[in-house]
Amino acid sequence: MGLFLLRRFGVMLLTAICLTFVVFFLTNLYPNLEKLAKTQGNFRMTEEEVATWLGNRGYTRSTVAKYGEWLGVIPGYVIEGSDGETRARCAPRGLALEDAPRYCGILQGGWGYSTRAKETAGIVMFKALKLTGFLMLWALIVTVPTALVVGILAGMREGSRTDRSLSTFSIITSATPEYVSGVVLIAIFSSSAVGLKWFKGSAASAMNDANLVNFTLPVLTIALFSIGYIARMTRASMTEVMTAQYIRTARLKGVSFPNIVLKHALRNALIAPFTVIILQIPYLLTGVVITETLFNYKGFGWLLVQSAGNNDIDVLLGVSVVSVVIVLLTQLISDIGYVYLNPRIRIS
């Protein structure tokens, strides 16, 4: 297990470096930097003025050097600008150069500055991440029990009327994207067109006071797709287990059907769905982009859209780092959990 974890951590580190470098390279393309200069300076700046503004702030140096500084493995730049002012990456907002640290990248907790929110990017990002974490938690609370029950009931008796009905429900929900299910839920349960004004079509008030009225529709929008997907995987696994030889032997020995399901089939049938459930976490992180934008819930997905639209480079980079870390960690947890649940993998 120790060697397995060591290899996995090595692959995770290499993957994180590659992915963050790609995002860093794309966000630091010249059109984005030109837009940043004109946004922070003057929209009527000439090309020469843009080049001077970027050069005074270290944006015109090589991508590798800028990435190393942003990551925190290379000392931050100290530049004598053409305007005579000395600027340092690690000495922003009036901090004396002699008091500034040499390294101030991600590894040191330096997430940069949000040009849109006018405050530290880390504060902006983790406020949004907290809201999204709360939304994802309730989505999982709704998704996992519902999907497992639906999948187990459908897989217990393959081909039955219950199986066909629940399988149809799973296929419909998993085939419907969030932007469709969200609009449908809003039209049915919050608009005046149908008349069922049970819930609010906006979740803006849920950021301060989440309740059944303002938080139900966003949770259902995220949960519906995952319920169908996990239920189908659980049903397939349960169907396979119910046709295994040891299940037939238990039936021939006269073991009751409920005991066969609960004591013999259920544990083995949940091995594959466990992996799928864990891997739903990074999917939910990307799925909330649509849901939060649709319901005006200013979480992580909403922040990603706003940062991309407003060219908020530091926040956009921070969001990419957090997303990569969450995806890699959930994959690691999934691998470890699968090893413990499946004895054949441990033996091999």
Question: What key phrases describe this protein's structure?
Answer:
14 helices; MetI-like fold; two-stranded antiparallel ribbon; 348 residues; mainly alpha; 2 domains
Helices and strands, with pairings:
Elements: H1 2-27, H2 30-40, H3 47-56, H4 63-71, E1 78-80, E2 86-88, E3 113-114, E4 119-120, H5 121-156, H6 161-174, H7 178-189, H8 212-242, H9 245-252, H10 257-269, H11 271-294, H12 300-309, H13 313-341, H14 343-347
Antiparallel strand pairs: 1-2, 3-4
Q: What's the helix count? A: 14
Question: What is the fourth-level CATH superfamily of the largest domain?
Answer: MetI-like
Task: Tell me the strand percentage band.
Answer: under 5%
CA radius of gyration:
26 Å
- The fold-level CATH name of the largest domain is MetI-like fold
Provide a compact summary of the structure.
Helix content is 68%, strand content 3%. With 348 residues, it is mostly helical. The strands form 2 sheets. It has a two-stranded antiparallel sheet.
